[in-house]
Amino acid sequence: MTNSPAGPLAPFRVIDLTNELGQLAGRMLGDLGAEVIKVEPPGGDESRFIGPFRGDVVDPEQSLHWWTFNTNKLSATLDLTTLQGQELFTQLLDRADFLIETCPPDTAAALGLGRETVRSTHPALVHTSITPFGREGPYANWKATDLVGAAMGGLSSLCGAPGRPPIRPTASQGYAQASAQAVVGTLIAHYQRTKTGRGQHVDQSMQEAVTFTHDNAMPTWDIRGINNGRPGNGREIGGYKSGQYVFEAADGYVACLSYGGLFGLTARQTIEWLDHHGMAGDLASDEWLAKLDATQGLLLPPSGDDGEYLLEILRAFCRQLSRAQLVSEAQQIRNGWGIVNTPRDLLENEHLAARDYWVEIEHEEAHVTYPGPWAKLSKTPIAIRHRAPHIGEHNGYVYGNLLGLSDEEIALLSTDGII
Q1: Contact at 8 Å (CB) between 216 and 139?
Q2: What is the mean pLDDT of residues 7-31?
Q3: Is residue 233 part of a domain?
Q4: How far apart are CA 133 and CA 203, in angstroms?
Q5: Gyration radius (Cα) of the chain, Å
Q6: Rounded CA gap, 122 and 408, in Å?
Q7: Is residue 222 part of a domain?
Q8: Residues 163-189: pLDDT tens digits?
Q9: Does any domain span residue 52?
């Protein structure tokens, strides 16, 4: 637990009816201080069964996936397939400021969560729908995983090695982008509500969220008729293919300028650096210096045999030094190199530690280290204030304190399988 001051959304309440496609959105609103009530079916949300699990035993209360994406939330169980469950859900919406959900359009309509229905019954509510392809259009009722989102959003076409098939990003970028951009849309709608008193519907498509991240890939096709390809270890922009960006060091990997800065404005000081270590080969010769001087101010690196020769020298050089030494010495000659950090490196990173980035959250079974807030707000900090909830942990608060039901009524709802 943390004792952080209240966040900027502290007065507001969110009803979270999302699956893994949108769970990060609820967590981010909770990080901003909102009270987020995660509504899950009796027995627990299906994402509680996504591994890995603490102790390697499949247990809905030990899912690290659940722990990660559901901090700062309260849990209330509710069977929305029943009429009584839908009536209770409507009462929750009466007391809420935001609704975020990932229901397919046809399912949303059956639950009374269609856009026009919610707008008519709860006009001040900001209602955010996160779906694979949006609430409207020919794909509206299609189902999709994160893999499908990355593929149909076009991101996979840009990932992988030249001449090889597309690949998916390792991290779940479809889900993450949809959630993060849904939060942006939700907060914009909330700002508008502060001026007008009326909410609105936010229709967030995972496909569109992923497509939005493509840098200049679509304009490149539209203007030049060139499809950016898979660049592997480099980058391709509108037909321009850069050299290698990531090189193996003695103890891991480093990322650097294209060709390590061996062309353009930084060529001479980079050659001097390699020569200091006896690794410049014949790059310090008049012939090579003349070639590299000709690239001053150009974005295009040497190509063909010359480009491959530069890469061979740089690869051999990097393998001789540690990541820290390479980065430190490169920065001394104003070359922008960086260490390719592993998850372990990040947990042990002195800079992140100095900024108090990592947060220890207490679970009954353990203290768990979490990534901290994505931004630092000086007055109303973003913070992880409590762990992810157990199944139905806050039923008493939600149905008793918020809806005013008695202990006997709550017990009967539990006995009947409604909560």
Answers
A1: no
A2: 97
A3: no
A4: 9
A5: 26
A6: 29
A7: no
A8: 899 988 888 999 999 999 999 999 999
A9: yes
Q: Does residue 175 belong to any structural domain of this protein? A: yes
Element (H, E) at 148: helix 146-152
State the chain's mean pLDDT as an integer: 91
Instruction: Count each helix (H run) and each strand (E run) in the chain, helices first.
Output: 17, 13
* 209 shares its domain with 93: yes
* Strands of the 35-40 sheet, one edge to the other: 73-77, 35-40, 13-17, 98-101, 126-131, 201-205
- Please say if the pLDDT value at position 1 is more than 50: no
Determine how many CB atoms are found less than 10 A away from the CB of residue 91: 15
The token pair that represents 101 in the structure block: 């959900």
- Quickly tell me which residue has 């247990």 as its tokens: 59
Q: Which of 344, 364, 380 is the last residue of a domain?
A: 344
Are 146 and 286 within one domain? Answer: no
Please report, for the domain that includes residue 84, its CATH number: 3.40.50.10540
Domains contained in the chain, number: 2
Cβ 98 vs Cβ 408: under 8 Å: no
CA distance 311 to 308: 5
CB distance 47 to 23 below 8 Å:
yes
Three-class secondary structure assignment of the chain: CCCCCCCCCCCCEEEEECCCCCHHHHHHHHHCCCEEEEEECCCCCHHHHCCCEHHHCCCCCCEHHHHHHCCCEEEEECCCCCHHHHHHHHHHHHCCCEEEECCCHHHHHHCCCCHHHHHHHCCCCEEEEEECCCCCCCCCCCCCCHHHHHHHCCCHHHCCCCCCCCCCCCCCHHHHHHHHHHHHHHHHHHHHHHHHCCCCEEEEEHHHHHHCCCCCHHHHHHHHCCCCCCCCCCCEECCEECCCCEEEECCEEEECCHHHHCCHHHHHHHHHHHHHCCCCCCCCCHHHHHHHHCCCCCCCCCCHHHHHHHHHHHHHHHCCCCHHHHHHHHHHCCCCCEECCCHHHHHCCHHHHHCCCCEEEECCCCEEEECCCCCCCCCCCCCCCCCCCCCCCCHHHHHHHHCCCCHHHHHHHHHCCCC
The verdict on 190 and 42 lying in the same domain is yes
**pTM recorded for the entire structure:** 0.91
Using a pLDDT cut of 70, give the percent of the chain over it.
95
Q: How far apart are CA 49 and CA 72, in angstroms?
A: 19
Per the structure, the complete domain to which residue 111 belongs is given by: 13-213+356-415
276, 409: one domain? no
